[in-house]
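Example record for the data management plan.
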Amino acid sequence: MAESWAARLGPEPFRDFLPYTSASALKVIHVKQVLSRALSVAQHVSDESARARATLRLQESLRAAGFAELLEISPEPVSGLVVSGLSEADREVIGERVLALYFHLLVREGPLFLDLRPRHFSWAPGRRTLRFYPSSLWCEPEPAFMQRLRALYAGFYRNDEEALAQGIELYRWHSSPSDGFATRVEGLLRNHFGSTDGSPVRFLVSHFRATFEAIFREVANSRAKLHPDLTFLGVELVGLYLTLESLNVALHVQPAFEKARG
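Corresponding structural encoding:
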């Protein structure tokens, strides 16, 4: 029932991502706000001039951050990422650059490009160049959301309890969950993020789905609600996991985050 509801009401650009969502997620969102924002995103999917302006802002921020040589922004759709035949070293470089892009999108000011699936990347082995096509599926999250999202990552990777507490607020947005919720959801988030001992991480869609299903169940059972923009971050994470899983390599995540933070 929940999946069919989402398929009927979810704007078309998001429907490709529905197979990766949890039915539990529909119980923990602020439905009207999420649907309103999804419709807003869908409206500019066909606006090429808006996409071009958002892409230019991304190019400028990558250049300012010193990432322009690592990632080439394509003005038109690319052929898609083909990993068969690539060496492990090449796949590691691609993974590191995709992670760099993801964290750059989170720490910079500007539109959040949501579609990081393999179809929007391509690799030129001879030049060792990764290209990315920013599609029209993008949004501009609330500043308060982005601030807390950065705090969540900082809290986890830097063992900053105060920052982590700020980030966890995203999972109890405008709601009053039951006692002990923050501690329980922190444990589930740590399970999602994985080890903090510096070990490389292998990205698996199955792990993504299982850990977030556990988080959504806890949020629902504790009568909490997610920040509306977490829904769109989830879309971005689906694409990220699909791309990184396809590379079949373990990656060092914390250095990518720290480099993006500067």
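Summary line stored alongside the record: The beta strands are 71-73, 112-113, 121-124, 129-132, 138-139, 201-202, 250-251.
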